[in-house]
Structures are given as structure tokens and as C-alpha cells.
Specification:
By secondary structure, this protein is an alpha+beta fold. It is built from 4 helices and 7 strands.
């Protein structure tokens, strides 16, 4: 249990300041398709929430295949997180109230009462993350490797089962 808590904390530290995530899902034709979604300002606990639209391609495709992948990228630190999980549509006014921000009014004319709003919950199965050494350290190590011919470790990578 302690390892899982540490994994959650590490993933949370990597994704907490990333505003947008690429959500990859499978279309009715069986193709992979990715769309950007706004991340919510909640601590990572193995469940990720999104506010989407009922008429969106993502929501329309979830009943036939609910497997998704969440791709987070922080290029300023060379940090990347890929989380796989099961997505489902949820109706929960309390969760909507917790996640709602006025920025969503640009997408939903009737605010929180818009009938097109759809909460999407992703129950995470596993993750892979790559934690960079930072830009300056990475540039230094790349320069050193090109001169010396030796390989350099440019960060850490970890796979976790959630």
C-alpha cells in the first residue's frame, strides 16, 4: 500500500501543473483518436475527472470501447506521463459542482445546467512516466555525451500498476 501511495504522489507531482492532457480513445471504426481535454485541479488518486459534452466524439464512442489513454507533457522539465484506464460517463451534480469553473461557460451556454454537459471519470489501471533531469542538466549531459562518446542517463522512467 505504501508503494501505491508513493506512485500516486509521484504521478501527482508530475501532472499537477499541466493544464491540458491528450485523451486517446478508440473510434467506432477502431482507429485511435486523440483530443485535448482540460485537466482538473484535483490531486491524483487513481481517478481522473473531465467535463465533456454529450455530443462529443469521445462521449459517443465510450459505450462501444471505454479504453482510454491520458498523455501529459511538461516540456519545460522534460516530464511525460502516460496513464491508461477505463472511461465512463457519470451523472453526479456534486462532482460537477466541485469541478466547475466559470471558464466552462464558454462551452456550455446554460452553465452547469446545460443538458449537453457530461462528466467523464477515468479509472486508472496503470501509468508510465519519464521524469527529466531538467533542461540545463539535459543539455549539459547531451553535450558531454557527444564529446566523450559515453551514454548519459537523462532522467528516470517508471511503470506502475494502479
Amino acid at each position: 500500500m505504501e508503494n501505491l501511495r508513493n506512485d500516486y504522489e509521484e504521478i501527482n507531482s508530475l501532472i499537477k501543473d499541466i493544464r491540458f492532457v491528450m485523451v486517446t480513445f478508440i473510434t467506432e471504426e477502431g482507429h485511435l483518436h486523440s483530443i485535448p481535454m482540460t485537466t482538473q485541479n484535483t490531486d491524483f488518486n487513481g481517478i481522473v475527472w473531465f467535463i465533456g459534452a454529450k455530443n462529443s466524439e469521445l462521449v459517443k464512442n465510450l459505450p462501444s470501447n471505454n479504453q482510454v489513454n491520458l498523455g501529459y507533457s511538461n516540456i519545460s522539465n522534460n516530464d511525460y506521463v502516460s496513464i491508461n484506464g477505463i472511461a465512463e460517463c457519470v451523472h453526479d451534480p456534486d462532482i460537477l459542482n466541485q469541478l466547475w469553473s466559470p471558464a466552462y461557460e464558454a462551452f456550455f451556454e446554460q452553465g452547469k445546467s446545460d443538458p449537453n454537459i457530461q462528466l467523464i471519470r477515468v479509472i486508472c489501471n496503470g501509468a508510465q512516466y519519464w521524469k527529466g533531469a531538467g533542461k540545463l542538466v539535459t543539455l549539459f549531459k547531451l553535450a558531454k555525451a557527444s564529446i566523450s562518446g559515453e551514454t548519459e542517463k537523462l532522467g528516470t522512467s517508471q511503470s506502475v500498476k494502479l
